[in-house]
Design goal:
Blueprint: H1 7-31, H2 44-62, E1 69-73, E2 76-80, E3 91-97, E4 106-109, E5 116-120, E6 128-137, E7 140-149
Antiparallel strand pairs: 1-2, 2-5, 3-4, 3-6, 6-7
Length: about 150
């Protein structure tokens, strides 16, 4: 049997190839565990409470007259805490996350001798860092999230 080849046959074959192309993606996402990426957390109620606490901390920080600031220096990074707060009562953690290499991520506990906290050059690689400063003063929680290039 001879198939008559014309433009209509070409369109039908192109459409069939396109459908097969799309169906192979559907098959991969549905049945192969390597491509299984769920966007919903298993404990989404607990995660929602965590996100609300984080939003509350960000709101507390936005109400401050002077917020935490980060500055690059040749020897590292200086994190300056508000002058109107007693630095001896400030507690918390500072998390440095590197988007391109999670192996060099680190965190520090906040222990101040003055209003400045120093991160030395020796533990910082040049590039982009995501910094999260979660701190407390007089039982009020604050949060600062910032990206910086070092």
């Amino acid at each position: 049997m001879k198939i008559k080849w014309n433009w209509g046959t070409g369109i039908v074959i192109a459409m069939l190839l396109f459908v097969i192309f799309i169906l192979q993606f559907v098959y991969r996402v549905t049945f192969i565990d390597e491509y299984n990426h769920h966007l919903v957390s298993e404990d989404y109620y607990k995660d929602e409470l965590y996100y609300q606490k984080e939003i509350d901390k960000l709101n507390n920080a936005s109400k401050l007259t002077e917020n935490v600031t980060l500055r690059n220096f040749e020897n590292g990074i200086v994190i300056h805490f508000p002058e109107d707060k007693d630095f001896e009562k400030i507690k918390g953690t500072i998390d440095f996350q590197r988007p391109s290499n999670s192996k060099i991520d680190f965190n520090k506990n906040i222990e101040l001798n003055e209003h400045n906290f120093y991160i030395p050059d020796s533990i910082l690689a040049s590039g982009k860092w995501n910094v999260k400063i979660d701190w407390q003063y007089n039982d009020v929680n604050y949060l600062l999230k910032e990206s910086l290039f070092y």
